[in-house]
Amino acid sequence: MRRARAIVTGRVQGVSFRAATASEARRLGVAGWVRNRADGTVELEAEGADERVAELLAWCHHGPPAARVARVDVEDLAPTGADTKFVVTS
Which of 5, 38, 48, 53 is the most buried (most CB within 10 A)? Predict the structure, then answer.
């Protein structure tokens, strides 16, 4: 089990990045959340099987077609088991 926080930098707001991330996370069976930050980045936390979280983080390096990802900073966290699904927050 792995939990990770990622900050995605680039053209990632206004390009459906959050919705696409949630869709991909649900497809992978990963729980957590994603949100826009005031500085123009997107932040997410994802928890699930190690390989599934890794797949989601790899996907974040390109995101949806309109996104232009410059960087993805990842921090591993202790799994909490608190999230039961993947949601878009504000």
Answer: 53
